[in-house]
Design a protein that fits this description.
Elements lengths: L3 E2 H17 L5 H14 L4 E2 L2 H11 L2 H20 L5
Antiparallel strand pairs: 1-2
The structure holds zinc ion (ZN).
The site of zinc ion has 6 residues, from helix 2.
Length: about 90
Amino acid sequence: MKIVNVTESLAEQKLDEIIDSLGCCKCDQCRADIISYALNRLSPKYVSTDIGRAYVKLDTMSSQFEVDLLAALYEAAEKVKKNPRHH
Ligand SMILES: [Zn+2]
């Protein structure tokens, strides 16, 4: 059985949407660091099926969740900009 953290999927989608406005590096290392940092500040939401995933996606994309997600991503981007781990 496959377990998915939908918060992770949503954070990756949202980062793709807003990365141009963040002014940060877009390399794989920095993107992974931004996602990790943001996910540590957000509540995980686990689902076990693709159907559940689609359902939770709709359910969790409330305006408050989106605000929290954006805030976490912006803060993460600032942190990674100051301390990039890429070469
Ligand atoms: Zn980078």
